[in-house]
Amino acid sequence: MQSSETALTDTAMSKRAVVAMSGGVDSCVAAILLSQAGWDIIGISMQVWDYKRNGGSASRATCCAPSDFDDARTIAESIGFPFYVFDFETTFKREVIDRFVGSYLAGETPNPCLECNRRVKFHELRHRAQLLGYPVVATGHYARIRPKTNGTLGLYTSRDTAKDQSYFLYELTQSELSRTVFPVGEMLKTEAREILAENGFAISSKPESQDICFVADTAGKFVERQSGIKPPAGKIKLTDGSIVGLHDGIHQFTVGQRRGLRVSAEHPLYVVSIDESQNEVTLGQKHELERLGFYVSAPSWIGGEPEQWPVLVRAKLRYRHEGVVCQVAPDPENSEYLRVEFVDQWSTVSPGQAAVFYSPESEKDGAIEVLGGGRICKKL
Amino acid sequence: MPGSAEVTTMNTPNRLIYADANASARLRPEVATRVAELFTSDVPPGNPSSVHSSGQRSRALIRQARSSLLRLLNCGAVPTDQTLVFTSGATEGANLLIRGFVGAPAGSKHIVCSSVEHPAVLEPIRTLAASGCSVTHFDPNPKGHPFNMCGLLEAVTPQTQLVALMLANNETGRVYPVAEVCLRLREDGYTGAIISDATQALAKLHFSAADLFNAGLDGLVVSSHKIGGPTGVGAVALSKDSERCRLFEPQILGGNQEFGFRAGTENVSGIVGFGLAAEIALTTLAPSIESRSALRELLWSKISANYPKAVRLTPQMDPGSGVELLCNTLLVAFPGWRGDDLVVALDLLRVCCSSGAACSSGKQGISHVLNELNLPEDMARSAVRFSLDWDATDNDVETIVDRLNDVLSRAARNTSLQTVSESHAIL
C-alpha cells in the first residue's frame, strides 16, 4: 500500500472527506482505505435517477437501483462511518440529462459522464458536503493527483492503465484538486478487489458497463423518450451530394460511425458529417473522414494556460481512444477556441466529445500527466 | 458515532437529542421492562384463544391493555359503545378502516379524503380508485386559510361511501376539526362512513373518541410506537352503534380474534406494551401537552431569533381562529438551505429530526403535504421538522438551537482548508 499513502498521509490536507459511493467495488475500496488511514469520512450515495419513474429496467441498470446502495450501506455499517443517500435528481436532470438530450438533438455525440463528474460529483456534491463540514471529496476514480515541482497540483493517469478514468476529470481546477482524493488511483483493479475480499466484503455482482448509466436501451430511444420529440426523418447523402437513403433522426448517428447505416455500397461507408440545420447525414469512405485537425471550445488547463504556443500533446478524442499526437494553439480568429492539428496521423473526430490533452511523455513510473482539454466543436 | 449506546447526562457533550417523535417516539423504559418480564416469566403468556390458564392469562392481559387504551382515547372513561381492535400498526389499521367500510368490489362508490392524509390512507384509497371507485381529494386549507368546510361538504355526493380526514397532520402539526366535520356531514344527511387517522393526535392533543363518535365518526386508527410503546402494534376504534359498523368487512381472515374484526393470534407482548404506554400517557397527558407546547414555542422563538430568514410552516397559535396544534411539532423552512442537507448535518451533530415524513427508500424529497402548502419549491425543499418527544426538556431545545447554529453559520465561514484540529472542534 506504499504508493497510495502519499495522498492519504498528506498532512496539509484536512482529513475529513465525503466518499461518493456508487456501491461498486472502487468507491467501496476508497472508503475502506481512507477509513483505515484514520480519516473521518462519511459515505454518500447520490440518487441521480429514478428508474421506476423514468422507464428503463432497474435490473439491467448499472446504477441507482436500491440494491446498489445496500452494498455501500453495508460497508458503512461494518466499518462504522455515517452513510446517507442524497437526492441529486433535480441537478442531474438539469446538468446531465437535459444537456445530453439537447446535444443529441443538435447532431452531436455527447459524453454525459463529463458533465456528471464536473457538475454533479465535483461541484454540487462538494458544495453540499462542505456545508456538512467535510471539505474533501473522495471517489473511486482511477486517476492520480500529485504535487509538481512548480508548486501546482497535477492530474495523472492511474496505475491501472486499462481502468484509467483521468479522461473524465480534465476540467478539475487547482482548488478542486487540492480538496480531492482518489484512493484507488495507485492500485490495479485486481488489487482493489483483493482489498474488498481481505476485509470480508463481497459486492453483489452487477454489470460493469462502459455504457451510460441512465440509458437502459439505446441513446437514440432515450433521447426520444426524454424529449418527447421524434426527430424528423431526413436525407442520407454521399459526399458527392447524391442522396442514398433516408434516416429516421440525426440523433441516432455519430461522426465516424460505421455500423447501422443501412446503406449498401462497394466500399465501407462512414458517417462523415451531421448537418442539424438541413437534418442531413453525410456518408463517405474512411479516407474522407481525414482532416487536418479540429477546434475545441471551453478549453481548460489544469496547471494554468501554457506560456508558450503551440503545445505538443497526446490527445484522446473519446474515452476509449489510445490518443494521437497533436499540436494545440489558440484559434487566431477567436481566442475562446483552440485549434488542434494532427501531427503524424489523423483520427476520427466526433463533435460533442471531449478532446483531452495528455503530456507526450510519461513519468518514471508510467503516470502520464493530464494537461487539459476542451469540447470538440463542429467548426471545421 | 451517532446512535451508539452510552450513558449520557444532560451535560454530556454530544448527547443525542431525539427530536423525531412523529416518526417514532422513544420506547418508555417501563414498557421495555414490562415486555421483558413477559418474555422471561416462568408462566409465559400463551395463545389467548387457548382454554388453559396460560391462554387465559394472555386474554386477561389483552383485556387490561384494551381498557387502558380506551381510557386514553376517552379521557379516562371506558365507554361501552366502542369496539377496540388491535392490529399490527396504524398502516394496517388505516387499510382495515378504508377497505372495511368501502367493501369490495368498489363499483360506483365515491370516496372523499383530504389531500394531506398519510400515505397509509392515500394509498389504499388510490388502489380503490384504480379498481373503479371515484375519489375526490380536497385541500383542507387552501392558501393557508382556515379549514375549508365548504370544499369538503361540496365534495360529498349521494354516492359517497367514505370520508377520511386526519385528526392531526404529522408534518405540520395542524389539527383538523373532525368533530365539527362529522356534525355538519350528518346534519346534511350524509349516511356514509367517516374515519379519522388519529395516529399523531394520540397523547399529543386533548381529544375524546366518545365526542367524535357522538358527532358521527365511525372509526379511527392509532399506533403504539408514536406514544412510546413498541412498534408492530396499533389499534382501530369503531363505533358500535353505527349502522356502517354492522356492515364492516374484516380484511384479515382466519380465526375469530378481536371480535371477528381481525384474525390472527394476538401480539400479546406488543399489546401489553401498547396498553402500558397508554396508561403512562394518560397519567401524564395534561402536563406533557402543556410543557411540550411551551417547548415548541421556545424552539421557534430561538430559531427565528438566530436565523431571521427562517419561515414557520407550522401554523401560529391563534386562539381567536380556533387553530389547534399538536403540542410537539414544529416545521420550519430554512431558505437558502436544503432540508435534507440540514437533517444530515444535524444528525452528524447528534440531533435527530427529519425533513418531511420518513421516506422508506432512504432518499428524501418534497412531501405531498408540503406541496399542498403552495410554497415556492426552494422553500418546500428547505423544510425541517422538529417533533419533540415525551421526555423533551428546555435543555434539549437549547442544545438543538446551538447545534443548528453551528451548521447554519458554516455557510458564512470559509471552510475550504480546515486543519484537523479545527475540524474536530466542530464535534
Structure description:
The complex is a heterodimer of chains A (380) and B (427). In chain A, the strands form three sheets. In chain A, strands 12-15-14-13-16-17 form a six-stranded antiparallel barrel. In chain A, strands 3-2-1-4-7 form a five-stranded parallel sheet, sandwiched between helices. Chain A has 380 residues and is α/β, with parallel strands linked by helices. Chain A has nine helices and 17 strands. The longest helix of chain A has 20 residues, at 112-131. In chain A, helix 2 packs parallel to helix 4 (66-79) and helix 5 (89-105) runs antiparallel to helix 6 (112-131). By secondary structure, chain B is α/β, with parallel strands linked by helices. In chain B, 39% of the residues lie in helices and 12% in strands. Chain B has helices at 29-40, 53-73, 90-102, 119-130, 149-155, 178-187, 209-215, 243-246, 268-306, 339-348, 368-372, 377-381, 394-408, 420-426; strands spanning 17-18, 82-87, 110-114, 134-138, 160-164, 193-197, 219-223, 234-239, 311-312, 329-333, 351-352, 383-387. In chain B, the strands form three sheets. Chain B has a seven-stranded mixed sheet, sandwiched between helices. In chain B, strands 9-10-12 form a three-stranded antiparallel sheet. A two-stranded parallel ribbon of chain B has the order 1-11. In chain B, helix 2 (53-73) packs parallel to helix 9, helix 3 packs parallel to helix 4 and helix 6 runs parallel beside helix 7 (209-215). The longest helix of chain B has 39 residues, at 268-306. Chain B starts with 16 loop residues before the first strand and ends with a helix. The A-B interface holds A 12-16, 40, 42, 47, 66, 69, 80, 82, 84-87, 89, 128, 130-133, 135, 175, 178-179 and B 1-2, 337-338, 340-341, 344-345, 347-348, 361-365, 407, 410-411, 415-420, 423-424, 426.
